[in-house]
Write a structure and sequence with these properties.
The chain is an alpha/beta fold. The chain is built from 17 helices and 21 strands. It starts with a helix and ends with a helix.
Length: 559
């Protein structure tokens, strides 16, 4: 076994085109580090509906040029079998380590396979790539990004010609083509032949499209502190704000420039504890010119986070949950007379269904988690998922877009400000009208993935009958699918209200993360609210019920 492992590593080393990973692997072989070699050669990084994502490094279980070249060759073979020989593939990338190298390798593979390749001119937000696919009439698109993952990671996100991310069976068919590649020597990679797009051809066109998001003549008086979280969103977002006529956002200086080390945050995700501390500090330092809101993008700018003033909070600001921003944007679009389908995922708040039901010309649909599903909803007008992803212009970008979402949040804030109101006031109105839909999440990060499988198995074998004193009225194993949902690894519990009528119902979804080593539990409780005066008590009740549900779910799952 030891000899086989060394032989396998040496064969990989012989084909590796990257001097960095060649040196890394050679050191491991020379040192006889069988533990590390075993981890890197335990299998192959699997291509799925999220494309590829993993830690950078040498070997088939890491993200590196060899793995990317194989993935690109598999995708090219798939596209040709689908009748797209000679079609254009658009390739974008962020500012992470190796992103530009992976993009160039992909361009070379596409040209070598007889396709055309169009490379974005510099590191740019993922929404620009998603826009460019349809704008240029491409047959596919690739964005090299690991989004908000830790600095050591990178990824490979694949879109087809409709501008949406891949879903089954395309993922399995592409994976089969990747697996059929036996040697990198069989993959032609010319040193030229692809087109590098002009910035005005893609970014300029994208910015022109953002005009469709806003209402002409709507208020623009809003002060914003903004952080791109060391990512690639700053230039495009500030240009979009300038084009729309908003005052220039105050950018958090320490996080303004792209930096693949993400030095000021433990995780470059606005949802993670501490990630927004510098933005809060920048807002406090503004003194009399305090901002109305704080906006954050994740590093590839497809997500948008919002914080609002909260005098009682330690930082003076409160991060809105993705479900809260999702409800605010939906309400704003309803007031703008938007028509069509409003969609969200099974793990997001059910409040959107009530907003859509009360709106003329709006329908509602739920999908599995991820914009790969949301983007395919018929007649889509608006979609969001609780993980800070919002699609406010599906005709322009058929994916989540943190830039256009930020524009719409700014417009809503300015409109409310013109009448002496705030986003928090509008959230209060929604709670009184539809009931307080309070959400929370239990997220457990693990080193050993078997712990997640064990927790799911435990819940399937011994499903809870009561959570937080509320009876479980239905327990669904989503691996079997439903009438409206394809199979997925998840569990869904519906809870009854209490006898006193203080809680009208609750819901729990448990699923493994599709992009990180996490088990995620999504919680929602609905509390009736008779008037604005009753909101404080309702929020306290919801908080205590959510805490109890969280504790009971953790106990039932053994996590």
């Amino acid at each position: 076994m030891e000899r086989d492992l060394i032989t396998q590593a040496q064969a990989w080393l012989a084909e590796d085109p990257d001097p960095d990973t060649r040196d890394e692997l050679a050191r491991l072989i020379d040192a006889g580090d069988l533990t590390e070699l075993g981890a890197r050669f335990a299998g192959t990084l699997q291509f799925g509906t999220a494309g590829l994502r993993g830690e950078l490094g040498a070997g088939p279980m890491r993200m590196n040029r060899s793995v990317v070249i194989r993935a690109a060759a598999g995708l090219a073979a798939y596209l040709k079998k689908q009748g797209h020989a000679g079609g254009t593939v658009v390739i974008g990338y962020d500012a992470r380590y190796k992103s530009a190298d992976f993009a160039l390798d992909t361009a070379a593979v596409m040209v070598g396979a007889g396709l055309k390749a169009a490379l974005l001119p510099k590191p740019l937000p993922t929404p620009v790539l998603a826009f460019a696919i349809r704008h240029l009439g491409a047959v596919a698109g690739i964005e090299v990004t690991a989004s908000h993952n830790p600095p050591r990671d990178n990824g490979y996100k694949v879109y087809l010609g409709d501008g949406s991310q891949i879903v089954p069976p395309a993922d399995a068919e592409i994976a089969a083509e990747i697996a059929a590649i036996t040697s990198l020597n069989d993959v032609p990679r010319p040193s030229a032949g692809w087109e590098t797009l002009r910035e005005d051809a893609v970014v300029g066109a994208y910015l022109e499209r953002t005009d469709a998001v806003l209402t002409a003549g709507s208020p623009r008086d809003v002060r914003v502190v903004y952080t791109p979280m060391h990512g690639v969103g700053r230039d495009v977002l500030t240009a979009a704000f300038d084009r729309a006529g908003f005052p220039a956002p105050v950018v958090v200086a320490e996080q303004a420039d792209p930096d693949p080390d993400f030095p000021t945050v433990a995780f470059p995700n606005p949802e993670e504890p501490g990630a927004m501390d510098l933005a809060f500090a920048t807002a406090r330092a503004a003194g009399d010119n305090a901002p109305d809101i704080i906006i954050a993008n994740d590093p590839d700018a497809d997500r948008c986070a919002v914080a609002v003033p909260a005098p009682d909070a330690v930082e003076g600001w409160r991060m809105l949950r993705g479900d809260e921003v999702g409800a605010l944007l939906a309400t704003h679009l309803v007031h703008k007379s938007a028509r069509g389908t409003f969609a969200t995922t099974i793990v997001s708040s059910s409040l959107l269904s009530r907003i859509a039901a009360a709106a003329a010309g709006a329908s509602y649909e739920e999908t599995l988690t991820g914009f790969k599903w949301l983007s395919r909803v018929d007649g889509l007008r608006y979609a969001y998922e609780e993980a800070l992803g919002y699609c406010v212009d599906p005709d322009g970008v058929r994916d989540k877009d943190g830039i256009t979402a930020a524009l719409l949040v700014a417009e809503l804030t300015a409109e409310l400000k013109a009448t002496g109101r705030t986003l928090s006031d509008l959230l209060d109105d929604l709670a009184v009208e539809h009931g307080l839909h309070a959400t929370d999440q239990l997220s457990v990060r693990v080193e050993d993935l078997s712990l997640i499988a064990a927790a799911m198995r435990r819940l399937r074998e011994q499903p809870p009958a009561v959570l937080a004193g509320l009876h479980v009225v239905s327990a669904e194993d989503l691996t079997k699918g439903t009438e409206s949902l394809p199979p997925t690894d998840g569990l869904r519990y519906a809870l009854a209200g209490d006898e006193a009528g203080e809680v009208s119902g609750a819901r729990v979804i448990v699923r493994p993360s599709g992009t990180e080593p996490k088990l995620k539990c999504y919680l929602e409780v609905v509390v009736p609210v008779a008037s604005a005066a009753a909101l404080v008590d309702a929020r306290g009740r919801a908080e205590s019920v959510l805490a109890a549900i969280k504790a009971d779910v953790a106990g039932a799952a053994g996590i």
